[in-house]
Structure formats: structure tokens, C-alpha cells
Amino acid sequence: MARRYLYYVAASLDGFIAGPDDALDWLASVERPGEDYGYARFYEGVDAVVMGRRTAEVSQGFGDWPYPGKPCVVLASRRPEGLPDAVECVADLSGLEERLDAVGAQNVWVVGGGRLAAALADAGRLDTLIVSLIPVALGSGVPLLPLAGAPLALELEKTETFASGLVQLAYKVGRTG
After folding, report:
1. What is residue 145's DSSP assignment?
2. Which residue has the higher pLDDT, 81 or 105?
């Protein structure tokens, strides 16, 4: 089975995954007791987690490391301070592939970082985009998918709506022309 990169992320309606200064407080607007929007099921189905340096640094502010029980690889030219010892760091996409091969990862969650997801998409490696649209407009912040290459063709596979106003969209990723 070929490796699949899955970008599972929350975004504002105007396309930001974090506000200015990496603010995430706006996500609280859809928090509901007992509702995880399919997160537990998704997390159970992934073999490894990958992220960029900036996302790794932000993740450290959550208290306990938020990705337990999964191999985790950070794409960074330098290792962020304070990462758990089990978290691996690599400098480029080829190093990322080597590490994921070493742990036998097939379904890989691309966490947070729009730049890493865009780099994977630009390299033709991003397979699935699952975006939970939060009913808020931020005006600025960290963009969802800042592509440098050709536009992506997205084929809608699933739509789910929730009482909080969150809408979750799942797309198969392709390339145009």
C-alpha cells in the first residue's frame, strides 16, 4: 500500500489555521462537551504524525505532548528545544520519507503547518485534505495552504455539518492541468 499524507486541520471561513501570533483561541467557539468532530476516529487511523518546526513549537505550549502513541517527525533544519526525545527531526522531504519508511508509516497526518502541507502538495504527495471550517473570520494569520506550485484539483468525498456551525469537508487531492 502506498503512503498517504492526510492534512486534517481546522480553518476559519477566510482560510486561516491560526490567527496572528499563532493564536488558536478562536477554536473554542465550537467546543462542545462530548463532541470531538471525528478526531478520535481519525487519530486511531493514522500511523505517524508529521509537522513543521513552527507547529512543533506551538504544540509544546499545550502541556503534555498532544500526539501520544504515534511516531512523530518534525521537518526542521534545527531541532526545537524541549521536544520529547521520541520526536525525530529531519531537514527535508527525502529525510521525512526515510524516517516514515523506517517506522512503516502508511497513513500520515500532516499536523497544522500550512507550509508543510503546501510543500507536500507542491511535491505531488498530499493525498487528502480534511478541513473543519469554523464559523469565524480572522482577517489575517497563518494561511491554510499557501501553495507555490500549480493549483490543486479537489474532489469532494464527504461533507458533515454539526450543531456548532462547524462544517467538515473531506477532499481527495489532485492536480490541475
Report:
1. -
2. 105
Which of 138, 132, 128 shows the shortest CA–CA distance to 162? 132
The span from the first CA to the last CA of the chain, in angstroms, equals 26
Cα angle vertex 46, ends 40, 48, to 5°?
A: 120
Give the Cα separation of 39 and 45 in Å (integer): 10
Q: Is the pLDDT of residue 70 over 90?
A: yes
Cell 486561516, located at residue: 16
The grid cell for 77 is 533544519
Cα 153 to Cα 54: distance, rounded to the nearest angstrom = 27
Compare 175 and 104 and report the one with higher pLDDT. Answer: 104
Q: Domains of the chain (ranges plus CATH)?
A: 4-173 (3.40.430.10)
C-beta separation of 20 from 141 below 8 A: yes
Count of CB atoms situated within 10 Å of the CB of 105: 22
Please list the alpha-helical segments (H only) found in the chain. 39-44, 53-59, 93-102, 114-122
Residue type, 81: E
Listed as own residue / partner, the contacts of 86-92 with beta carbons closer than 8 Å and 24 or more positions apart are 87/56
Q: Taken in order 143, 145, 150, 156, is the CA torsion positive or negative?
A: negative
Residues whose CB falls within 8 Å of the CB of residue 82, separated by 6 or more in sequence, listed in order: 60
CA distances, 160 to each of 8, 21, 133 (Å): 14, 30, 10
